[in-house]
Design a protein that fits this description.
With 535 residues, the protein is an alpha+beta fold. The chain has 19 helices and 18 strands. It folds into 4 domains: 157 residues, no CATH class; 75 residues, no CATH class; 133 residues, no CATH class; 65 residues, EF-hand (Recoverin, domain 1, Orthogonal Bundle), CATH 1.10.238.
């Protein structure tokens, strides 16, 4: 069993320590015992990113097409200065939360101002602030900022040596100094090695004794191919994992200063991945595993490349719990962990209307009027300038929320036998004699049920609603193809809360279906008479 190579430590720009990435590819047979709770391995005095962390994220084997879709940096739309663009499906579970925290800061700093007035420098600052806010929630003991090591001429074939098969195949032609041509169009295109495919060239370089090809020719082509792939920022999972390292910083001010001085780390082709690894390293492998219910399931789906709910929750709350309900629930002796406090950023999903999950109060009622919205395949962001959407709960609203905890079916009534428990939970008078009196008043026909409206009218008859009847909503979708004319822009709509609930599942309008999980009686007129896409 091979031993891992020792990686040196390099000083960062701010005097921090840069710990080099593991030289072994993640698919290697080498085994390294996990070190500290930061998800790193210890070799002497040097720490390297743990393969256990890599496997937790991707599973035992990552498909290159999935990994390729995650290779993008943070970039702003040329049509909406503060809107991030998502190139491919998959990394929305990182991009959408970052966008949400960016908008949270923007709404707090510039209420009522036009988003179009923002300068590139201001948007850069907002992005760094959003990243720092997420990292602050995830910090265990240190901030561990992951970045790519500088290129080394000694590792020419660490780069990508095959291209993924996509729906649209393109051919790239590279002419060498001797006039030979290397064509690149999938796994089986002959290259300059005399008929061998690019994949075979990599195999030949790794074990030349098993492939009948001139080693000198391999090394010559390797240098050329490495330069080509590095220039185009194309990476295999093994190559990427072998080239990353992290700086350890103690204070968030140092993190903000580092990203300000090295903004390219966020914007280069691997920027989203580097931030994801930074979040995981900062949280620590041990902490992540302790919060997940099933560590055997990777955080990124091995086929579709989308993030799990645990990863979404980690990005939004700093905790990698797998569920979206409030607090923990005991089911058959198993503790299923949910959201333990009111979140800065909310989360609502169309999957709740389909009864795949139950989103709790903490997510539906965040501290800021910003919600990440989930469809079955994608994450987008909803936000508003209306601060009253997230004003503190009134006693009646607390009662409504608690009542619904006893009303598991959402039928707006509970069995009359539950009245005493309900009143006790709300800290109302719950002596048996008084409860019996209230039961007779709330259920005069002795039907055995207590209606929600009757309960609220009895105990909270004159309380005014804190929620406005009308307000504006804005929606962000980072995928250009999901926007009009492929332009990533915020879509604005005017919302009205109707007198009665109109909740119903409408497969032709998933946006309204999702909004109704938060506001059951909502109706929205979107500008341009075009409902924004959740996908």
């Amino acid at each position: 069993m091979g031993e891992p190579s020792t990686a040196p430590s390099v000083a960062g720009l701010d005097g921090s320590r840069l710990v080099q990435g593991d030289q072994e590819a993640s698919g290697s047979s080498s085994s390294i015992s996990t070190g500290g709770g930061d998800g790193s391995d210890t070799i002497g005095s040097v720490k390297t990113i743990s393969k256990d962390l890599f496997n937790l994220l991707w599973g035992n084997k990552v498909k290159y097409d999935v990994f390729r879709r995650w290779q993008q940096g943070f970039a702003f739309s040329e049509y909406e200065p503060s809107a991030l663009v998502q190139r491919d499906g998959g990394p929305c579970c990182v991009i959408a939360p970052v966008q949400a925290y960016l908008l949270k800061t923007l709404l707090m700093e510039t209420p009522g101002h036009s988003f179009n007035d923002l300068t590139p420098d201001k948007c850069k600052t907002l992005l760094i602030q959003a990243v720092c806010q997420i990292l602050m929630k995830c910090k265990s003991d240190m901030y561990r900022i992951v970045s790519l090591r500088s290129d080394s001429a000694n590792e020419p074939m660490q780069m990508m040596t095959t291209t993924a098969t996509t729906t649209t195949t393109t051919t790239t032609t590279t002419t060498t100094t001797d006039g030979s041509v290397i064509r690149q169009a999938g796994h089986d295109v002959p290259d300059a090695l005399g008929g061998h495919t690019l994949k075979e060239a990599e195999e030949a370089r790794c074990s030349p004794a098993t492939v009948d090809v001139d080693p000198a020719a391999i090394e010559g082509a390797a240098s050329l191919l490495a330069a080509h792939y590095y220039r185009n920022n194309i990476w295999t999972p093994d190559a990427f994992h072998g080239r990353i390292g992290y700086r350890e910083l103690e204070h968030i001010d140092d993190v903000q200063r580092f990203y300000t001085q090295n903004f390219h780390i966020l914007t280069n082709e691997c920027g989203v991945l580097l931030l994801l690894y930074t979040i995981l390293q900062t949280k620590g492998l041990g902490s992540i595993l302790s919060e997940m219910s099933d560590p055997s399931e990777p955080l990124i789906h091995d086929t579709y490349g989308c993030g799990s709910q645990a990863l979404i929750n980690l990005m939004l709350t700093g905790r990698a719990v797998p569920h979206v309900w409030d607090n923990d629930q005991d089911v058959g002796g198993m503790t299923l962990r949910g959201i333990n406090q009111q979140s800065d950023i909310g989360f609502i999903t169309v999957m709740e209307q389909l009864q795949y999950c139950t989103v709790g109060f903490f997510y539906k009622n965040p501290k800021n009027p910003v919600w990440v919205m989930g469809s079955d395949t994608h994450l987008t962001v909803l936000f508003s300038n209306e601060k009253r959407l997230v004003s503190p709960e009134t006693p009646a609203e607390v009662a409504r929320r608690v009542f619904r905890q006893f009303d598991a079916d959402g039928s707006n009534f509970i069995p009359s036998t539950m009245l005493q428990d309900l009143m006790y939970t709300l800290e109302l008078v719950s002596e048996p004699e008084y409860v019996d009196l209230m039961r007779s008043r709330l259920d005069p026909e002795n039907l055995g049920i207590i209606l929600l409206n009757a309960f609220l009218n009895e105990f909270f008859p004159s309380e005014k609603k804190s929620m406005p009847d009308t307000f504006d909503l804005l929606h962000y979708n980072g995928i250009p193809n999901s926007n009009i004319n492929n332009r990533v822009l915020y879509n604005k709509g005017h919302a009205v809360l109707l007198e009665s609930d109109v909740r119903m599942y409408n497969p032709s309008d998933p946006m309204l279906t999702c909004l109704q999980t938060k506001w059951p009686n909502i109706e929205v007129n979107w500008n341009g008479n075009r409902t924004p896409s959740l996908n």
